[in-house]
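Notes, Module 5: Reading structure tokens.

Key idea: the token line is not a picture. It is a compressed description, and you learn to read it the same way you learned to read a sequence, by spotting repeated patterns. We will look at two proteins. The first is printed below with its tokens.
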Amino acid sequence: DSDCLWAGLAGPQILPPCHSIVRTLHQHKLGRASWPSVQQGLQQSFLHTLDSYRILQKAAPFDRRATSLAWHPTHPSTVAVGSKGGDIMLWNFGIKDKPTFIKGIGAGGSITGLKFNPLNTNQFYASSMEGTTRLQDFKGNILRVFASSDTINIWFCSLDVSASSRMVVTGDNVGNVILLNMDGKELWNLRMHKKKVTHVALNPCCDWFLATASVDQTVKIWDLRQVRGKASFLYSLPHRHPVNAACFSPDGARLLTTDQKSEIRIYSASQWDCPLGLIPHPHRHFQHLTPIK
């Protein structure tokens, strides 16, 4: 399924790696390079700067691994992190104050999804192996339960939130996806995948556009205005291995997917049937890429 990728590479001239972004743009202004080659040059310039990156700060507050994280929508130095034991930490690494810490239930409480409430950033949405998708505050109070499982065999693996459409979407470990409004009213509950839904993502520019990823080795694209059942997806993107995540770019035009073996894929909204890029990322067993923020 990578043949179409390589077939398209013999196109516009690609500039040689350039360490200067200004020089790359100057080449374009002089008419010596097309815009696609400029984009490639800018990417190369950015990659060269990665050598200068250093660890700014680090913390180890959990007795189990970190399973989810969310950047604060307006404070760039603040991040919320969830753990496999259900612990949640709000950390402003720009100040020396002690982070806010909410103790979880331990085994079986893994935080699988975490999102700040876009209407009130003192609150957050969380999905967990405890069997709920809920809204709570950083004092530990549960304000509303949006979805709850009646059995220990079913839990929630992912969630996303849209402020403009006031919607919450969550997926579980048997393939179901639930859409609710922010008042907690369930709009629909459908089995969209054959196996666990590892990730759900609303497009940041078109919030009726939904991507769902699953261990059934597919990513599916949906129009929420036209969902009628499991066969009503707009596109199905087959993968060779179970998929961990499907994340839209900030402009909503691209989709990044990560699998449980060794592959990162980039898809474009103009050509969903074929990835723009395949990036190898080898890892050891059970150390696959988690969602990138």
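Here is the second protein, with the sequence above and the tokens below, as before.
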Amino acid sequence: MALTLELAGKGRGKVEPNPMVGAVLVKNGEIIGKGYHHVFGGAHAEINAINEASDKCKGAILYVSMEPCAHFGKTAPCVDAIIKAGIARVVIAVTDPNPITSGKGIKKLKEAGIEVKTSIMELQAEKLNAPFFKLMQKGLPYVIVKWAMSLDGKISTHTGDSKWITCEESRNYVQSIRGQMDGVMVGINTVMRDDPLLTCRHKEGKNPKRIVVDSRSSLPLNSRLLKTVCDSDVIVAVNRSAPEERVKRLEQFGCKIVCTNNLDGHVDLKELFKRLAQMNMTNILVEGGSRIITSVFEHKLADKLMVFIAPIIIGGERAISPVLGNGIKKVSEAAEISEVIVKRFSNDTLIEGILRYK
């Protein structure tokens, strides 16, 4: 089963909004076929494994990291191919959380006389596809917050300069992460200050949708985002008080507008994330600035944190910190990071982990 999970991970950033799935066929103690879901709309892992095994499938054991589908989508049901191939036993890591097919694949396999065993390395399988599980179970995308800061906790100088706090190696790694995301989110202040592209500069990565939280629809018409709107979608989140003429102008430039409730003059982020989930966006990388990061934390919307720390001191009372607001009253109330991973990029340090709120 560990091999199926390893194979599944090869589809990261290419199969969303589908889950990553791996499959291995074993007969007489030998692997006769392996497969994983390569790309959204393409053959599923089970089909690729069956095709590799060819006519050897009869009587084999299929190990698969998620319950085989039993419905017609972009492809035909995998359970039908499993039954037709004469596979004798199916070992499944985790049940599919998608209500369209959840439990139905297992049921159909059993009805066909195939022995089924489930919940093998279940926790590892759920962790691998945490964004998919959240989308299916909560109707929200998986939110990763990322920032780069100095040793004294500053993301820019008091003048707003932030290029570049971290080294080129760190920035290249961020590009690889972007290429795995469905969307990258920033606030309008970041756009005004940096005029970013928010695309993936790695050839093997996909361009995420660019999401700008812009309550008053102030996105400059000469911004690089609008100049490249044909390269990747630009989604502008406004509130219901945004000037209608500005909203229409952004639509004319090709932007997709998401209008939320007016939450104290700001965009309602929880409503925004729900709307993005309805667009089948599985994972969102929030890159700043500090106002957006603060709002995400205050509303407990982030699932994972990635912090790049550079060995420099910026200083200054008016230099910007990543998380602002009123903060907590007691240290015991602080959000915690679990499953911590530490990586090094030249002299920079990356700390990442799963957020746990009190």
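Summary for the second protein:
- The chain has two domains: 1-131, 140-356.
- The chain has twelve helices and 16 strands.
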